[in-house]
Amino acid sequence: MNKKLTIILTIKGRHLHSLRWMWHANKIKLPFPIIIADGEVDPSIERILDNKRNFPNINYQYIRYKDLTVKDYYFKRMDAISRVKTSYVISVDNDDFLITSGLDLLIDFLDNNSDYVGAQARIAGFKLINNNSEFSNVQGVIKKWSEKYIDNEWYDPLNFDEDIGYERVRKLLENPRSIYYCLFRTNDYYKVSKEIYERNPCLNICELYSQIRFLSIGKVYTESNTFSYTRQQDTSQRLGYSEDIIAAFINTSLAEDIKTLFPYALEQMDNICPKNRKELLGLITSFYSNDLKKSFISSTLQQKYRLLFRIKNILSNLSYYFKGLTGLKIFLNHKSKKPYFLNRKSLQTYEFLQISYSLNDNLFSAFVIKNAPLLLKKKLLEND
Questions:
Q1: Each residue of 49-63: pLDDT tens digit?
Q2: In the chain, at which residue ranges do the beta strands (DSSP E only) sit?
Q3: What is the pTM of this model?
Q4: Which CATH number, 3.30.420.40, 1.10.1660.10, 3.90.550.10, 2.40.50.90, labels domain 5-383?
């Protein structure tokens, strides 16, 4: 058991995905302690997770929470992090998978670079094919792998290695990147999560605020030649208390949070002069202003030109599919009947293949049918 990193699995709903995540973790003997923070306790899930004989190859705690509001969600995250005993922590979603060889590299990097607050590798993506309505989007054959979860700059590798916090934050605002799935130093992760819980901002502002706070504390490294995480596409979850950017401006404290929360974040930054603080606040305002404009225009056009947008989405998907998927697409050697990858180290290849097998594992299906038949009935009702 690796005693340097803890996995926090934050869940709310998508119960079959939670079981799938645990099944795979147990199958590969995930070598890190796990804290499951469950905000929507289901009797079937509770019964299965309480019996640790179901997943004997992993070390986990199952913690129940009430997650009905944004404040509840922030508390769930903060409290789960407060239970971590290791130096590093990573938060994961139940529809995604970890690449442990990539995590090991990141642990070594943070061990040897104390000025870095976090580290991540590349984040891959995958889609499933499954005609079984009981296990739709949960089990099936992988339709495609992609070397980026989403084909835009948000998932392009970029290091934030400037010595001054102001320069790191400015770089983020001028070149937006996701650092949500980093390994973070536990004390810093708890500090930022506690700030968010205490100030209770609109959910839409949470990720950018976190990024700015992490980069004000230290550097963030991205390993561009390996993977540490893979996300399932087309399963993004909109929580009951989350809203799109337009609705958030109307129904939540988003506008006020922009005026109050980010100045607070910048005040925590060492050695920033009033001129630089003003510049960063201007970039933050522009960030949300542009986001709102894009969302409004897109929403308006989709309502007015629905057919045109359907054609656009079809063409976009075709373009995405034929981009080559360098380094992740599975090819099949018809002579040996053994799948293999291109341009990836053998250990990472093996881990991606393990994910593929878990996603199409009849033993998992049998386990769910035997131990959680009510979840399958709920799934069928959701699909109707």
A1: 999 999 999 999 999
A2: 5-11, 34-38, 60-64, 88-92, 96-98, 116-129, 141-146, 183-185, 219-232, 331-333, 338-340
A3: 0.86
A4: 3.90.550.10
